[in-house]
Amino acid sequence: MARRTTSSSTGSSPGPRNRTPQPLPRRRRTFGDFLKAFLAFVALVVLVVGVPGALAVKIGWPLPHGVPSLDWLQQEITVGTFIHVLTVVVWLAWAQFTACVLVEVKAALSGVGMPGHVPGAGPSQLLARQLVAALLLVGATAASLTPGLSQLGHSIEGNQKGTVAAAQQTPGGLFGQQQEQAAADTAAAIAEQAAHAASHADSGSTAKQGDTKYYRIQPPEGRHHDSLWEIAQRHLGDGRRYKEIYQLNKDRTQPDGSKLSEASLIRPGWILEMPGDAHGGELVEMPDAAPKVSEQVQQQIHDYAKTGDHQQGGGSQQGGSGTQQGGDRDTAHIHVPQQRPSSDEGGGSDTGSGNQQQEHATSGAEADGSSFGLPEALVGAPLLAAGLLGALGRRRRQALWQSALGAVGGRRGMEPPVPTGSAADAQDALLVGADPEGVRLLDLSLRGLAAALAAESRPLPTVYAAWLSGNGDLHLQLAQPAGKPPTPWQLGQDQTFWMLARTDAERYEDVDTAAPYPGLVSLGTMDDSRLLLNLEAVPGIVSLSGSVGDRAGVFASVAAELATNGWSDRMTITLVGFGEDLTPLAPNRLRHLDDVEALVETMEAETRQRRGALGAAGHDSVLTGRTGPAQHTRWAPHLVLLAAEPSADDAVKLAELASDAGRLGIGYLVGTESGDLPGAAWEMEITSQGKLLAPLLGLELDAQLLPVAQQRAVVELFVEADPERENTNAAAPPFLVDISEQGRPAVYARLVGPYEIIGLETPDGERSPLLHEALALLLLHREGVHPRVLSSALWPRGVTEDVRDALVERLRGWLGNDPDGTPRLGTDEAGRLTLAKSVVSDLDVLRSLYHEATQGKGVNSRAVRGRLLTDALVLVRGPLLADRPQGRYGWLTHEIIDAQLPLLVADIGLALSAFHLEKDRAEKAIEALNASRNSAPADERLWNELLRATHATGDNDRLKRLAADLVARSGARGLPPRTEALLDELLPTWRSGVAAVG
């Protein structure tokens, strides 16, 4: 994995940050600083302690000691009365100021978010803030109470202490370190130091205490706390080398008696031994430190050096060896969840996708060098691709039904338009990359967990993130320990991890419960594990820095996945500064606002409404409203994606709104150029190399992106499938067959009903099912099938390129050549596999017969129209591929043929019914309609036409029975409005008649 180095040139990014966006200049504390701190302390003591003491001693209790009578109101107002009233006012002012002091102290010590606003405080809170800041500016003790702003253990409302400890165990706290790669890098760095030290020892230059460099951790500058990352960034040139500093100093006694045991927890005043190549003016080189530090600090460094014999000289070698052998015991147990050994590494016939994400990535890498690659951003995003593909299929089905119901003269657009160009590539990439089974299991697992906790009367734990490991296991990372998880969930590597094995997830069944964590969204992968961050649970804002173009890819990916994912019910996604063209993906979820001002106004109202709703319902957070009997749509998340950097004033307003957002189910992802954003709980950076970095979260992800080109192509697919869009070219099928006697095909496949192939010998051996399935896929896509789409359809778990190519060659040999020597399986200019016109299916013939009857020769010849429609209806022998083997043809779930075929059969039945009714042959019309209903039983058009045909027979009792059958079939939903209106016209007494028949 390539390592990123940061440039110190002007204008360049100083490197990844979290909470501490840029190393701040350090300076020695002056006498004036200490004087200010002393005066601030005196002022606080006088105002917080002295004022109430003086009031109590000098004035006493200002309020009446008993219940006043009416006579008391008529007494003369004396000086004593005025003083008592003034005393009450002073007591109230003191209480308000004290509250301001407590709020500011809490915010300064925790280092998270903006201080809470005390109602009506104004100048009082400003004074308190200045006094507290002046006091804490030189106070190391207060700063040592917190591990700094890099913690992720802060819960929505006052997290437990145990949570902080769990979240601090790595510089990532929440997410941990890159497993083997990071350990190898650290070991290599330490080994290099050991070799360097050994070479000095061999040459006779013994490492001495006086040659060692030290660094004294500085007190905080305002709310900026020092961190190992920044120390390494300043003095070693690379923040990732913080591990070397940690290894040199862990478990050594510090001047205050404590020890460095967690890489994210350092305290002002501590001494750190630095690697030999450290540089910078803040370092102390003993014994030449006299001009730089006081005698007290020199003595502290001398005492500290005595504790590090095992870390110096040859001890460095030992440390390096120990790291290589066993790893860092303090940072190794919070990391990307380790994968369990797969139980089916040898392969098998299972078409599940346990390793689908990894397999897809491998398949994509194999094709990088080919002449027909696909957009890797979509191929490598299995959850995003599955969501987009599912939403696109629903959109196309909706368009088909609306086209059918709005058809004029019985003619409609039978097919959605076939994508071309970049849209076709995007669709193929979605087909290759999608992992619908993974999405289904994730949804079942989360809802199953919610149902199990509700059954035990336990609340949902706050989940910061979910990891999907390479073997399909699901790991939830909790904000704080929540006890033992319900069966079949297990505790993970510590108390803040709940784990569900894929085999256990596959046993889950659908449950009627609300989606517990709809705000989960994929950010990228690390060590073959995919990270989903729960945006609505973040205790503040998530900021994203980087160039505008790089940030745009992240924002588009997050918006698209949130809009189409399969593990949420309802949500609102507000896009600001980007994404107006993304709204076609999910018009009911996505909305676009023009500017930050409109966003602030909207979110202020939303925040007030949610607080009131939670209070009225008696819930402390949206999580308690998603379980049990109180499942309401108001607990759906509202996620704000703000790509444009807000102004300073707007940033402060957003920070205030976000301070309570996690509890309310509101999440904020905000873009920034500098990375310095008020109220940012978690800070991330996207690099030009596609890496998503959050160093103090322990994250270095291969980011999931949706670049502009792929974004436009995906949006084009949705726009083309818009039900409201007029499509003038959809009437003709994509492939017309010569239905004359001279047009007999060389190879004929029956797909509508049981699968049969005429004109080819049945292949021998185990390859026959694969060849049949491949041919069916090609027959359903006359426009061509990308080889990677073919391989992902036949082998959902992935397959190597040579196996795929071997199958294609066998298929080409099986199909043979036309009389002119042209192979019946060819390849077009884009590299897609296509079938010759001599290879057809009954579905091709069915479409061609209907088209010819309604728009070809049958338009001007009634006899031809009747014959063609009758021939077409005879071809319908049942559902598509009726006898397909279980476990195969899973790719049909991505297709809309299951919606297209019934509509086509209904169209044929309607056209043939109209043909017979023109000559008053009602019984023939009813016969045609009933034949069509066998394949399209739910088509409202067939029932309505059947009512008209039955009415044409003049048999009123028969019409009543048909109406009663219709009502019985409709169930609790009732009849569609059009059907009711038709019954009112044909049988005005149908309601009473139906009751009588019933």
Automatic annotation (TrEMBL):
Residues 1-26, 306-369 are annotated as: Disordered. Pfam families: BTAD (PF03704). InterPro entries: Bact_Kbp (IPR052196), BTAD (IPR005158), LysM (IPR018392), LysM_dom_sf (IPR036779), TPR-like_helical_dom_sf (IPR011990). The keyword Membrane applies. The chain crosses the membrane at residues 37-61, 81-105, 126-145. CDD domains: LysM. Residues 1-21 have a biased composition (Low complexity). SMART domains: BTAD. Keywords: Membrane, Transmembrane, Transmembrane helix, Two-component regulatory system. Residues 841-987 form the Bacterial transcriptional activator domain. One of its GO terms (biological process) is phosphorelay signal transduction system. This is Bacterial transcriptional activator domain-containing protein. The lineage of its organism: Bacteria, Bacillati, Actinomycetota, Actinomycetes, Kitasatosporales.
